[in-house]
UniProtKB/TrEMBL annotation:
Keywords on record: Aminotransferase, Transferase
Pfam families: Aminotran_5
InterPro entries for this protein: Aminotrans_V_dom, PyrdxlP-dep_Trfase, PyrdxlP-dep_Trfase_major, PyrdxlP-dep_Trfase_small
Entry protein name: Aminotransferase class V-fold PLP-dependent enzyme
Keyword Membrane carried by entry: no
Ranges for domain Aminotransferase class V: 68-305
Domain of life: Bacteria
An annotated Gene Ontology molecular function: transaminase activity
Protein's organism: Cryobacterium frigoriphilum
Length: 364
């Protein structure tokens, strides 16, 4: 049985744009929840879809073919969300696993350039190639673009830094990479969902959807241009990467998909059921409006704390002892601490009341 790929029109009929205010009504809670950068919240639709799927499974009515149709609809939806065609999207469960496919394909002795302090899922897979002579050079994010040289094979970076929320200068990085003949791999996990993301500007991207997209953990995506994909070895190839998925369950022959599906990792089925309404919600939004909403709240917090405005959805500041994080927690707010910093994030469900509560907790 070959996986049937529905057309975009039949899988996702056109809909009217949804405003941020309307999107807020899709959540059960969120008041005081400032941790989308750690774990997103599900919508009512995602909760309902997963509950219905669990009940269907319990009745013995769930089937692999049905899940495969869901996966293909989500693939199409994500492709539309980030501006690429579905044939350029591979599916999996973790960003590190997908980054590892790229890392395993870096030529022996080649250089990979990464920002210092980037999330380990974008660093460790490349450090693990040291036995082949792969060199990982780490520089400050602000120095990434000017640090690309003719020796650089790949620039791997997160579009939004996990620890600080800093937005990388993707235009400068990609332009520098092109000038020096280097490829780009961008992790959009901390960006996709609160700001517009164009995956087509990079040679490859990875994205986990359990943060800003509010999907269940275990739904991740990999995009690649055809030219870059041809340089990659599908090291994780399994039955789901086959041209004919259901005809690829047993050896000895291997016939992988000709497009990005050859990098697919078999999906954790129930998670994709929850991901479908999550991805559909964000496809319905004007992400420029979402960015304006989140940045407005982030900048308002900076104003209240006497910090320079950052223009970010994630706001973090030094908090080595965890004092500020403890104050936020004591005030009933959910925040996080990373790399010796307190970290808060604003998303669809947040408003100015959340900013006021955070300022009151930190500056009583």
């Amino acid at each position: 049985m070959t996986v049937a790929t529905p057309t975009p029109a039949s899988a996702h009929p056109p809909r009217l744009p949804l405003s941020v205010a309307e999107a807020r009504t899709r959540y059960l809670g969120g008041r005081g929840y400032l941790a989308a950068c750690t774990l997103g919240l599900p919508t009512i639709d995602t909760i309902a879809a997963m509950r219905a799927d669990a009940e269907k499974w319990a009745r013995g009515e769930a089937c692999a073919a049905g899940y495969a149709e869901v996966v293909e609809r989500v693939r199409i939806g994500f492709a539309d969300l980030v501006g690429v065609t579905p044939d350029r999207v591979a599916i999996g469960s973790q960003t590190s696993v997908m980054a590892a496919v790229v890392a395993a394909s870096v030529p022996d002795g080649a250089e990979v350039l990464v920002p210092t302090g980037d999330f380990s899922s974008m660093v460790f897979p490349f450090l693990a190639q040291a036995h082949r002579g792969v060199v990982v050079r780490q520089v400050a994010l602000a120095d990434l673009a000017p640090s690309v040289t003719a020796n650089t094979w790949l620039v791997a970076f997160s579009l939004v830094q996990s620890a600080t929320g800093t937005v990388a200068d993707a235009d400068a990085i990609t332009a520098s990479a092109r000038r020096h003949g280097a490829f780009t791999l961008c992790d959009t996990t901390q960006a996709t969902g609160w700001m517009p993301v164009d995956a087509a500007r990079f040679d490859a991207t990875v994205c986990h959807s359990y943060k800003w997209l509010g999907a269940p953990r275990g739904v991740a995506f990999f995009t690649a241009t055809s030219a870059f994909a041809d340089r990659l070895n599908p090291a994780n190839a399994g039955w789901y990467a086959g041209e004919d998925v259901w005809g690829s369950c047993y050896g000895p022959a291997m016939s992988l998909a000709a497009d990005a599906r050859r990098f697919d990792v078999s999906p954790a089925w129930p998670a994709w059921v929850g991901a479908e309404p999550a991805i559909d919600l964000f496809r319905s939004l004007d992400l420029a409006e979402v960015r304006a909403h989140t940045v407005r709240l982030g900048d308002a917090l900076c104003d209240g704390l006497g910090l320079a405005r950052l223009g970010q959805a994630i706001v973090s500041w030094p908090d080595a002892g965890g004092t500020d994080l403890a104050r936020l927690t004591a005030a009933g707010l959910t925040a996080s601490g990373r790399a010796g910093r307190a970290r808060v994030a604003f998303h669809l469900w947040n408003d100015s009341d959340d900013v006021a509560r955070a300022v009151a907790a930190l500056r009583p």
